[in-house]
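Digeranylgeranylglycerophospholipid reductase, Thermococcus gorgonarius. Tokens?
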Amino acid sequence: MKYDVVVVGAGIAGPIVARNVAKAGFSVLLIDKKWAIGTPKQCAEGISIKVFDKYDIPYDKRFINREIYGAKLYSPSGYELELRYKEVSGVILERKVFDKMLAYYAAKAGADVLARTEALDVIKKDGKIVGIKAKHEDKPVEIYADIIVAADGVESTIARKAGINTYAPPHEFDSSYEYEMLIEGLDPDLIHLWFGNEVAPRGYVWVFPKDEDRANVGIGIASDHPETAKYYLDKWLKENNIPMRKILEVNVGIVPVGGFVKELAKDNVVVVGDAARQVNPMHGGGMAEAMEAGTIASKWIVKALEEENFSLLQNYTKEWWETDGKRLERVLKVRRVTEKLTDEDLDLFIQLLSGADAEKIAGGDYVEVIKALLKHPKVLMSKRRLSLLKQLL
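Tokens:
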């Protein structure tokens, strides 16, 4: 098989790249090792409403479980911070359907799509990568392409085989554990987040409603913590008297929360999405980030093919690092500061911050918020708090 572009991985970034490049008139093959694209999910499934228009994705009720109007944050001592909008601010997806539909949109744009096709290695000729070795339904296959896109997740075989350094230390990953389950008593129009060093070390517990009484209930904690994410989630459920007798699904995963890949393009190989660690380090969400990276990457792939000049792929690295990469590095600074907060600090900041402040901090646009916090008496009275917050300026 021979294509202009082969895209390895049909999560979020891969289908965006495949669709955009196919729309430009080039031959594209999108492959995924799973039997059914989108399964199993490893995601809390929440995403901003803004992505649909921004990345030209239909607002299709087939993959939207519920519209969300904001969020509520809970401190270790039970202080609450609510951010509620009058209009829909986000949705809870059904990733099993959403991912498959993204692949469908790529196919409609002209890309070929093959499930149950696992990339195993790159093919080299005269020292250059000219394709990939794979197995399709357990049969070996060679796929030749001018450009290879590694969108194959956190452990990215193709990026590694292409010689791209994707190493990050264990501390730059979170372990997550999630139940899809029946749960009652929480406002289903909001997502709910609980913080605390005894609740979720370095992370949080989440409840993302999918129905009035059904939700994704999960947790993320530092992957190098001695206890497991499951231990802390089960502990939280027990302490809050939430019965665990109606669990519909269990999902486990590793989430990158730092260690962004520096070299996003090497010769004719491009890396995007989780494979490039393009994830928000604060909340661990990566769908919007994958869409953005996929959009930037596909623009430069098209230009490289049009001008038959693969050195143009380096502009993907340059543009991403000057835009979204710069923003995510600011968010990473916040994550590293929040790791050092005590429960007393978390109580204080949830009391002091507004919902809009919390949103700015999570998005990396936090300078004015931090400046205001530095003037508060309870911050001024603590040299440690002053020192931590000043690290963000």
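The longest helix spans residues 287-307.
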